[in-house]
Amino acid sequence: MARTNSQIESTIEQMQELIERSKPVFLSSTKIAVDREEMEELIKQLRTNMPEEIERYRKVISNKEAIERSAKEEAERMLTQVKQQANEILSETEIMSRAQKQADDIVAAAAAEADHIIADAQYQCDQYMAGAQKYLNDMLQNLNGMIYDCVDSTTRNTNKFLEYLNNLGQTVQDNLNELNAQPEAETEAPIEQPAEPPSIFEQPLDENGEAM
């Protein structure tokens, strides 16, 4: 089924362009850093346009009943007209036999034409409905995959970066401890140093990579 470029498709294309032009994450050849505000704006556009797009396709699907009703009305009109013609022919007693055959042929042809109209309308409606449902399903699945990929990638990159900072902080702390350590040969009691405040790098992280 041919379909035009919708607002939702345009927003998804903008998301793809944002991903393609995003810069790679430091120390990673496969991860990228996505502009959060721009991505949130695109997601906002999707949420705004999605009800309108879905309603549009619902109207397309709802036209099925109108098309079928119109086809049935046209078929009934044709049958009524044929019956009237048949009655007019049968009213002439001198050509009763030929008129009866002609009327039967006309009725049969009209009934066949009506069945064809109804079948064609049913087929077109089914095609519209199947195409619309497939398009909505594919669009929502692609959107769902993109959102979860972004969330998963951002979470992994954040956790790795915090782990790297935590290790760097521990290295700095070890160097400070080694630098401030007193030689064993000195007899004077070591000066008690004030307790170091807990480093933000040593704080435990939750599943989202944030300090608890």
What does this structure look like?
The protein has 212 residues and is mainly α. The chain has one domain. It has helices spanning 7-21, 36-90, 96-180; strands at residues 23-24, 32-33. A two-stranded antiparallel sheet has the order 1-2. A hairpin with a 7-residue loop joins strand 1 and strand 2 (32-33). The longest helix has 85 residues, at 96-180. The protein is rod-shaped and about 130 Å long.
List the SSEs and their pairings:
Layout: H1 7-21, E1 23-24, E2 32-33, H2 36-90, H3 96-180
Antiparallel strand pairs: 1-2
Features:
3 helices, 212 residues
Q: Approximately how much beta-strand content do the residues carry?
A: under 5%
Radius of gyration: 38 Å
Order of helices and strands: HEEHH
What is the helix fraction of residues, given as a range?
A: over 70%
Largest sheet: 2 strands, antiparallel
Task: Give the integer mean of the pLDDT values.
Answer: 76
What overall form do the CA principal axes indicate? rod-shaped
Number of domains: 1
Low-pLDDT parts are none
Tally of extended strands? 2
- Number of helical regions: 3
In whole angstroms, how far apart are the ends? Answer: 52 Å
Query: Spatial order of the strands in the main sheet?
Result: 1-2
Report a brief summary of the structure:
With 212 residues, this protein is mainly alpha-helical.
